[in-house]
Amino acid sequence: MLLAKPKPSKRLPLYGGIITLVIFAIGAILNVIMGFDISFQRPPMQYFFLLLGAEFGIMILMLWLVEYRGKAQKFGNNIIVKYFRLWGTITLSVFSLQIWSLVPRAILNPLFDINLMSEKFDLLTGGWWVLMFAVLTILCYDVLFWLWAKINFIFSFEWFIIRLGSLPTKSVSKRLNVKEILHNVEWMDYKKLSE
């Protein structure tokens, strides 16, 4: 809500830093009282506070380093940032397309004596196997996104949401126009707004 104001406060990064420290302090106190445990179960409250503090702190740090210093245009046009923005364009569809993660297993399945399509990797020891599958999975998603971006993510969940949302206004959003959202964006610097 503070960022939505016509003239955002110059002290917003300071307030965010204080809030981050408070969240971390709560997480640390809870970890001392309740114990620290990382497992594959649902994260306990104390672990949640540490994660929340880290996420909030990174967001505030990025806001301070980029937007409050007037570097949003340069940062937004960085090739690495564009790569992650493309992934973020259709996050709902990415979440629902987890079955695509089986593609690298199907590709590599004929090369091994065991069935890679099952979830059991007990026979595959060593961290490099996990790394190989992770890199191959990301490459498969990259190929999918690259091809899908050529047609502006038609029939993705986001495409349907935009189409349904445009029915009352009769105006279709350009939110999935890849050329527009990656290359023709005019970034807003909070440094200019707060002065």
**Care to count the β-strands?**
0
Which stretches are poorly predicted, pLDDT < 50 over at least 5 residues?
none
How helical, in percent, are the residues? Answer: 55-70%
Q: What is the global morphology?
A: globular
Kindly report the average pLDDT value. 82
| Global Rg | 22 Å
Compressed to H and E, one letter per element, the order equals HHHHHHHHHH
**Termini separation:** 18 Å
Share of β-strand residues: under 5%
Largest sheet: none
Structural class: mainly alpha
Number of H- or I-type helical stretches: 10
Quick overview of this protein structure:
The protein has 195 residues and is an all-alpha fold.
Give a structural overview.
The protein has helices at residues 12-34, 45-65, 72-76, 79-89, 91-96, 102-108, 127-149, 157-165, 178-183, 190-194. With 195 residues, the protein is an all-alpha fold. The protein is globular and about 60 Å long.
Layout of strands and helices, then pairs:
Blueprint: H1 12-34, H2 45-65, H3 72-76, H4 79-89, H5 91-96, H6 102-108, H7 127-149, H8 157-165, H9 178-183, H10 190-194
Helix pairs in contact: 1-2, 6-7
List keywords for this structure.
195 residues
